[in-house]
Amino acid sequence: MRKVTFLVTVLILLAFTTAFARKKPLPKPAPGGAAIGIEVNLRTPSGMSTGTPDIVFFVKTDAEHGVKQDTLIPADYVSGSRAYLLNVVPGEYAAVACANRGVVGKVPILGVLTDAVQLSGGQNPMVMTYFSSELVESTRVSVAAGEFGFAGTFRVRQAEVINPDPVAMNYLIKSDNARLGNAEETKRDDEARRLFLSQAKADLAEGGWGALVLAAANPAEKRPAASQSPVALARDLLDRSELGPVDEGEFLMKSKAVREWLATHPDDVDALIVAARVHWLEEMSNPVGITPGEKQPDPAARYEPAHKLLDHALALQPQSAEAYYWKARLFGVTAPYLNENSFEIRPLDAGRSVAFARKAVDLAPAEVRYSVALAQYLDRDLAPKEAMKVLEALPDGRHHPLYALLGDFDAFQLPEQAVFNRAMSQTMTQAQTARGTLRDYRPNRVRCYVIPAAAKEFEPFFIQHWPGFKQLGKPQREDDTPIDMYQFAFKYVDGAWVAQKSPPKSDRDLDGIMAIIVSELRNPDSEARKRLPPSAGNVYTVVAMVDYRVTER
Predict the structure, then answer these.
(1) Rounded CA gap, 121 and 110, in Å?
(2) How far from 408 is each of 111, 279, 403, 499, CA to CA, in Å?
(3) Which structural domains are found in the chain, ordered by start?
(4) What is the pLDDT of residue 182?
(5) What Å distances lie between residue 532 and 162, 448, 452, 517, 544, CA to CA?
(6) Between 20 and 30 A from 294 (CA), which of 162, 221, 423, 455?
(7) How far apart are CA 321 and CA 324, in angstroms?
């Protein structure tokens, strides 16, 4: 016990003395070195966020002592709520504790002074949270040489030090700043892993850990070894492309190898699916422009070769959930459509994207990405309630970020006269995407509606149904434009939407905001009228809603 106490004290002091020093560069991957990542979100006993941990402590387990060890290993790098052990020897590891400073302690200059005063009085400026046995066991992860291990994403509720269990007691140093930590939420499923690895890729980019992180995004048990066949090599590259851009030269080489393989193995179902994905990525990477006055080619025709490959795969293997899933992805591609009356961006075939995704879920209900895709397509097809039921069927579905986004709009009811406008919603989604303000699930964050009446007529409805809404107030109006515009912002706080006194002043202030713009328009011209529902008269209202909620996984 003395050895642990001494080591922890030294580590805390080292963490303090280096907290405001220049951040050291990430170490380069050593030959055969493994890495481990974990995400820890701390909550006080009352449930308030305490910020992010400044350091997370691990142990290397063994057969004799399990997780009760004498030597603690501090994380080599911490980015926000994510902590990393880098260049560790192969074996099994577990997280046993973390340390964080208070809010004041994180403020430059002021934090240094506060810590100095506390240290001079013999106090520890760091709050130590010792994990419970259950939490420690949940973080166990094994890594082999050259592997990246994901220990999980955890929400940890702190508690007073009362009756600590044997594991916490093994590491506990009693002080006013000591806390116990219990697992309030644990996420180690494929979706949590994918999200963590996409963030790890950015966190560790400067250190050259990209290849290790990308390899971890494609677990070996789910695919053949990358060195076995051209199909496996291409699948590995395509899986990496789901997380970010891949090298164009590597893509051209591996896509060519897949086509050559198919020429001699035309009934290889895995190769057919991979070849369809290759075609999908090629088309997605080369959008076709539209020239006014020229006849637009059918956007769906570009994906027909991929459909034929998948149709052949299904003829050979009718129960292939993956083939149905990729058929849904193909039909769900959004493309621009231009005709004499309007321009809009919409899915190639919304109905069939839902139908094929539903079939994939029926065949493989445990595959999270199939259910998430179905929920996304149902929401696009104006069935958000059904989309939420699909996610509820997953083991941890109610905690999925898409489930939260779909539920957010329920808090802002609209009059029954409101008509969803797909063209406006798609246009606003594209505009927000171009600005970089939508992080994920972009089509599911934006909704636009047309109400065939003046905005003021519905003010009593908004006051009754929108949380904290008081009145439309004075509109913003541009000179000589027939538009009255009202801007509102609501923030999700402690499980409820709270009206903000003023809208965000910049894109940096959008996190966690539901932004709503109510625009009253008058006397639309003939072109604008073509894009409106028939019920819209000379005065109508557009309600545009954008959800900037920060998803946790």
Answers:
(1) 17
(2) 37, 36, 9, 14
(3) 2-207 (no CATH), 290-399 (1.25.40.10), 419-547 (no CATH)
(4) 92
(5) 64, 12, 9, 18, 14
(6) 423
(7) 5
C-alpha–C-alpha distance, residues 472 and 541, integer Å? 13
Residues forming beta bridges with residue 372, ordered by sequence position: none
Residue 205: predicted pLDDT: 81
* pLDDT, tens digit (0-9, with 9 covering 90-100), for 293-347: 667 778 889 999 999 999 999 999 998 999 999 999 999 988 877 665 566 677 8
| Residue from 282, 198, 182 nearest 242 by CA | 198
By the 8 A CB rule, do 307 and 323 touch? Answer: no
Q: Is 307 exposed, middle or buried (0-12, 13-18, 19+ CB in 10 A)?
A: middle
Tens digit of pLDDT for each residue in 469-497? 777 777 776 555 667 788 888 988 888 88
Question: What pLDDT does residue 142 have?
Answer: 87
pLDDT at 531: 64
pLDDT at 102: 57
The backbone torsions φ and ψ at residue 143, rounded to the nearest 5 degrees and listed phi first, read -135, 140
Give the integer Cα–Cα distance in Å for 140 and 133: 11
Query: Which residues does 248 contact at the CB level (< 8 Å), separation at least 6?
Result: none
Closest by alpha carbon to 342, among 551, 526, 138? 526
What sign does the CA torsion over 387, 389, 395, 399 have? Answer: positive
Other Cβ atoms less than 10 A from the Cβ of 49: the count is 12
What region does 43 belong to: left with phi over 0, alpha with psi -120 to 50, or beta?
Answer: beta
Q: Which residues pair with 493 in a beta bridge?
A: 496
Both tokens of residue 221? 């048990």
Long-range contacts of 286-290 (CB under 8 A, 24+ apart): 290/336, 290/338
**C-alpha span between 261 and 309 (Å, rounded):** 14
Is the Cβ–Cβ distance between 527 and 539 less than 8 Å?
no
The first and second tokens of residue 265, run together, are: 């193995």
Which residues of the chain have a pLDDT value below 50?
Answer: 1-23, 103-123, 220-227, 553
